[in-house]
Amino acid sequence: MPSNVIVGLQWGDEGKGKITDLLAKNSDYVVRYQGGNNSGHSIHINKKHLILHLIPSGVVYPDNKCIIGSGVVVDPQSLLQEIKKIESIGINTSKVFLEKRAHITLPYHRLLDKYKEEALGDKPIGTTHRGIGPTYEDKIARVGIRVLDLLNLKNFHKKLKDNLDYKNQIITKIYKRKPLSFQSIYEEYIEYAKFLLPRIIDSVYELHDAFKKKKKILFEGAQAMLLDINYGTYPYVTPSSTSTGGVCIGSGIPPIFLKNFIGIAKSYCTRVGYGPFPTEIRSPVNEIIREKGNEYGVTTKRPRRCGWLDLFALKYSCMINGINFLIITKLDVLSELDFIKVGIEYRSHGKKIQHFPANIDEKNIEIIYIDFPGWKKDISHIKEYDDLPINCKKYITFIEDYLNLEILLISIGSERNQNIIKNKSSFFKIFS
Ligand code: IMO
Ligand code: MG
């Protein structure tokens, strides 16, 4: 059975957790295929707030198998804490599995992430300090330690020793900090290995088998298109392939298995960390949106930068991801505003830029906006699209026309049931 993919189309925090949870209800598997515990996916059920960093957002359904795939970088400490935390609120995690080929984050990765950022002075990337970059660096340098290495202690001992000897040179000689102790890391990770052992699987064969058995598989993207290592606003990106293309790479399945590419976009934009943000709002409206939308990082608690919807960037994201269904989230957050702007075009020295720039030179870019009058009405309890205020519908129609895509669903609040299904026939085809 061809499967569904959920990806974020902006700079993250689009509400992927909520939508994954919604789709997971009728899925057999939910798979994370890239990123690590830098992501923070939120699910709100009956006013309870569940935050997931590594565990796929299908975990609340007892029959769902949740797989952390080979493209993910896994911090065992963080995974263990997450498992314990969600078990403590009565959620069963016995169906959470970890792919043996996934790479693991070690304490030196976290430290190096922090030291590198500090060394960049006033021009850091603004990473989450979770060690994501250094873990992927080791993977590409072919010295990384994988989950399966934890199963062979002799092997793990040697790999850790070799890696740590080298990292300690960098830590002491370049960053002038204290070296890390081999023994304490080794002992700590042996404990993680014992804990994680029953969850370690070969998910590649598991997923291929599931396809043969016509199981429904949902791939849950982390981060988002504009943070993609290849196509995002480099170098202010995350070091993984966040697009739909990353699904095959990070889970070991061929493209032909994939069918519905569901893109999630917020009705405005946010960004955490540094890097270009052409439609960033430079007026008190930035704070108004931040407060109304609770735009604070789930992982790092940092205030998010807020901006208007950037349709030019969104079109680029939809193109790269082959999006065939669009979901718009947090539309309720805009309800109090007198007017709403939408970025539709980038210009440089008065000339329209045809393609989303590979390098955004914000000083020389002018954004052309269209202004929409606000609807000034609470929409968070509306159930039917037709009942939305006319100005709100105009905003939605404009987005659809610009992107030449129909919106499947509009999310109007963080609770599971705060949604307006716009395209019912497609929705039920995908979601049932
Ligand atoms: P979810 O899955 C928003 C950002 C960081 C930083 C950049 C690189 O919740 O949407 P990293 O630690 O990945 O090396 O940091 O990427 N970033 C996110 N921003 N949501 C996320 O995840 C993010 N994960 C990383 O803020 O700018
Ligand atoms: Mg998040």
Could you explain how this protein is built, in words?
The protein folds into 3 domains: 154 residues, Adenylosuccinate Synthetase, subunit A, domain 1 (Adenylosuccinate Synthetase, Chain A, domain 1, 3-Layer(aba) Sandwich); 94 residues, Adenylosuccinate Synthetase, subunit A, domain 2 (Orthogonal Bundle); 166 residues, Alpha-Beta Complex (Adenylosuccinate Synthetase, Chain A, domain 3), CATH 3.90.170. β3 and β4 form a beta hairpin. The radius of gyration is 22 Å and the shape is globular. α3 packs across α4. The protein contains 12 helices and 20 strands. The longest helix is centred in the middle third of the chain and has 22 residues. The protein has a 10-stranded mixed β-sheet with strand order 9-7-5-2-10-1-11-15-19-20, sandwiched between helices. Strands 14, 16, 17 and 18 form a 4-stranded mixed β-sheet that branches. The chain has a two-stranded antiparallel ribbon with strand order 3-4. The model has no long low-confidence stretch (mean pLDDT 96). By secondary structure, it is an alpha/beta fold. Bound molecules: 6-O-phosphoryl inosine monophosphate (IMO) and magnesium ion. 6-O-phosphoryl inosine monophosphate binds next to α4.
In short:
The chain is built from twelve helices and 20 strands. With 432 residues, the protein is an alpha/beta fold.
The number of distinct structural domains comes to 3
Bound molecules: 6-O-phosphoryl inosine monophosphate, magnesium ion
What fraction strand? 15-25%
Per DSSP, the total helix count is: 12
Total number of beta strands = 20
List unreliable stretches of 5+ residues: none
Through-space gap between termini: 13 Å
Main sheet record: 10 strands, mixed
Provide the CATH topology of the largest domain.
Adenylosuccinate Synthetase, Chain A, domain 3
Quote the average pLDDT.
96
Radius of gyration from CA coordinates: 22 Å
Q: Walk across the major sheet and give the strand order.
A: 9-7-5-2-10-1-11-15-19-20
Structural class: alpha/beta
* Shape descriptor: globular
Helix content: 25-40%
What is the H level of CATH, i.e. the homologous superfamily of the largest domain?
Adenylosuccinate Synthetase, subunit A, domain 3
At CATH's second level, what is the architecture of the largest domain?
Alpha-Beta Complex
The CATH class of the largest domain is Alpha Beta
